[in-house]
Amino acid sequence: MAKRKACDFTLMISVILLVFIGIIMVFSSSWPDGLYKMQDGYHFLKKQLVASILGLIAMIVFMNFDYWKLGKLSKLIFFGATILCLLIFTPLGREYNGARRWVDLGVINFMPSDAMKLGSIIFLSAFLAKRKEKMQSFKEGFIPAMMVIGFSCGLIILQKDLGTSATLAFTLVIIFFIGGAKISHLSTVGITGFIMLTLAILQPFTPAGERYRIKRVTTFLDPFADRVGSGWQVVQSLYALGSGGIFGLGLGKSRQKFFYIPEPYNDFIFSIIGEELGFIGCLTVMLLLLLVVWRGIKIALGAKDLFGCLLASGIVSLITIQALIHIAVVTSSMPATGIPLPFISYGGTSLMIYMAAAGVLLNISRHSQLDRS
User: Fold this and answer.
1) Nearest to 186 by CA among 146, 134, 153, 131
2) Which residues, in sequence order, are CB contacts of 271 under 8 Å at separation 6+?
């Protein structure tokens, strides 16, 4: 039996450091909400610690679980993720902030969309790896792949989560492109996707008073025009980043987390990092994320088979796109949407899924041709 190779040490340390920073920042940014809503300032910290421990276990398990076995189990994994998404439309589904995205099993609440992200990446990677000779065919390559992508994203769109569905769509299309799709076919996808995204934002068949997405776009164009209304969240985020300066106000000394930014420990945690740790803190987080992306790309390029290459590429793409969207929203570089920062934002399901995905990357690195130092 061949000796097992070492995993990518740089990737592993980068992920662990990001999770550690996340735990600290979730505690700092959630203290006021914890005291006010839960009468316990440690409430969100304790839940994040539990998720981190479970995520670490998942990362270690997948780091030692040969990734090619995931290809054999891809149909079962995708089926399981689909069932979890459909549970939202049963009595187990729970609505929060006007959107039905959670499943309540009594002892645990989770977001099935996070499971669908990883499940669809695994399934599409295995699907394309088996059809690599047919990827140039419109009928046998393009149509089946787009059905998988459309089905996966459609289940999330039904949950009224345009941000997550767009993130997943971009990720799966990147996998399809790397898998050998024709540029002409992808151009059709791009045009169709742009039209559908525009319609989703304009919401032409929705009553004028309920078209919240177009409101987000107009707010993005000038958030200060309605700074106490629709632009409140973005304006407060910019205040947080601006007041942090180079070195920040100091850990725990954020002012905007005191009910100026709603749930600052989740979709706007990067603004609290900027306020408390300053430009240096933001740069540190971004550099660690870049390390993860860089090592992931190296792992994908060095993978010994197409499935490993596509799987690694999909995981890296998901992390990259979600991190870019989160930072862009916080800095008012794009319209607001609820996207957590990978490995850092509060959220047990998201953290565990991303740490499990990192474990898969680490396992692929054990079979890749690369420098593991």
Assistant:
1) 146
2) 236, 237, 238, 240, 241, 256, 261, 264, 330
Bridge partners of 93, per DSSP, are 103
Q: Report the relative pairing of strands 99-104 and 93-96 from DSSP bridges.
A: antiparallel
What's the token pair of residue 351?
Answer: 């953290």
Whether the pLDDT of residue 372 is over 70: the answer is no
* Residue 291 to residues 9, 27, 167, 269, 347, Cα–Cα distance (Å): 11, 25, 21, 20, 23
Give the type of residue at 74: S
The mean of the pLDDT values for the chain is 89
Separation CA 120–CA 268 (nearest Å): 27
Q: Report pLDDT digits (tens) over 174-221.
A: 999 998 888 887 888 788 878 877 777 776 666 655 566 677 777 788
Instruction: State how far the alpha carbon of 250 is from the alpha carbons of 42, 180, 196, 266, 273, in Å.
Output: 19, 49, 44, 20, 10
Q: Is the pLDDT of residue 1 over 70?
A: no
Q: In the chain, what are the helix, strand and coil shares in percent, each to the nearest 5?
A: 70, 5, 25
Q: In Å, what is the CA distance from 306 to each residue of 128, 301, 309?
A: 9, 10, 5
125-136, pLDDT tens digit by residue?
999 998 887 877
80 class by beta-carbon count within 10 Å (0-12 exposed, 13-18 middle, 19+ buried) = middle
- Nearest residue to 119 via CA among 361, 356, 332, 370: 356
